[in-house]
Amino acid sequence: MAQTNVIPQPLFDTLENIHAVPEHLAGYLDSLNIPPAKKELQLCVEFLKSYAQSKDTFSSYRREVERLLHWSWLICRKPLIEITRNDIRDYLQFIHSPPQSWMATKVANRFIDTSDGLRKPNPEWRPFVVKVSKAARRHGKQPRKSQYQLSNKSIEAIFAVLSSMFTYLQQEEYLESNPVSLIRQKKGYIQRQQTRKVTRKLSRLQWIYVINTSEEMARINPAHERTLFLMSAFYLLGLRISELSYAPGRMATMGNFAPDKRGLWWYTTIGKGNKIRDVAVPDELLSALKRYRTYLNLTPLPHRDDPTPLFPKLKGKQGLGARQIRNIVQTVFDRAIEKLVTANKTDEAEDLAAATVHWLRHTAISSEVEYRPREHIRDDVGHENPATMDKYIDTDRVARHRSAQGKPLKPQSTE
């Protein structure tokens, strides 16, 4: 019998604290009366650990695996080993309208530290979170559980993650078949968009306002030289936030910028899949780097392997983390929005209110398509999927760098 009245407990901690079967979960798993639960939890922990090199991937996989386990054990009342194709179809119906007791209206950590140094489940955590857009929040709209909606992108992610998990369980000889792969016509679960799709990039006018705002902030307060270089790097290099932020074992440093034997400058980073790549550095960014380092009382250009954080904290020796970088970018967006409103460009302001940091990457890539060979862009931004950036073509590094050198920080506006 389904236990929709039972509040699920978090199953997987952070990468640093994840364990096969934490002590506090032993009693919870025993209460489910599903004998294979502990073994399945252990297998899922090992599956998730295989994504330890990417914090974002680990987090998204953890979310989907955790939801399925709760549904399987509490709603379907089956272990994963008994889940069939029809059960997966039922699950896809369930996640469109989960019990409100399984929802929260704000993100909460799964576990919290006790005074004696132990980790315990956070009673505020729920498997599903209802969110509203930034633009809606600006107009005073608050998230309501009755308005929970699953996006098409989320459904696509569910198929990908669960199929990968069941394949892993097959490889571990725990399952004989993958119930997700047995579902045909997966596109039938993706709703067709009836409303205007949001273009997740800044218009030329919006970007001009954003970069002009960054420059103005740096003129008024030199501490914002860091802000200006950050925004310039996002646009001129087309990087992900993880490729500019500090994280344990992966730190963006000045030494990531270095010339090759031809004197061409590149930014070396670690992208998705823990793959190292070189990104061609445009002349304008090299000039911006010199200005930024001069502000930091450093030599105009870094030496190879310079350990100085690329974006040092104002206090402390570490670099800025992803959350801190998001806050800086949001501050620039907010001020640019105010300027757009003052200029009576309301539509542009409202669209910018919905923007996130990742829009800067899409903006950068879109701006380059107009004048750079697609294969050059593909290699710089780390796109390998043919559907994402055309078919794979080997490129010459000199030609790729030459096509990047003239990229302007301020494109010609059509306004």
From TrEMBL:
Domain of life: Bacteria
Species of provenance: Aquicella siphonis
Keywords per UniProt: Cell cycle, Cell division, Chromosome partition, Cytoplasm, DNA integration, DNA recombination, DNA-binding
Residue ranges of every copy of the Core-binding (CB) domain listed in the record: 38-170
Protein name per UniProt: Tyrosine recombinase XerC
GO BP: any one term: DNA integration
Domain Tyr recombinase residues, every copy: 197-406
Compartments, as annotated in UniProt: Cytoplasm
Region (Disordered): 376-415
Gene Ontology terms, MF aspect: DNA binding
Keyword Transmembrane helix part of the UniProt annotation: no
InterPro entries in the record: CB, DNA_brk_join_enz, Integrase-like_cat_sf, Integrase_catalytic, Integrase_recombinase_N, Tyrosine_recombinase_XerCD
GO cellular component: cytoplasm
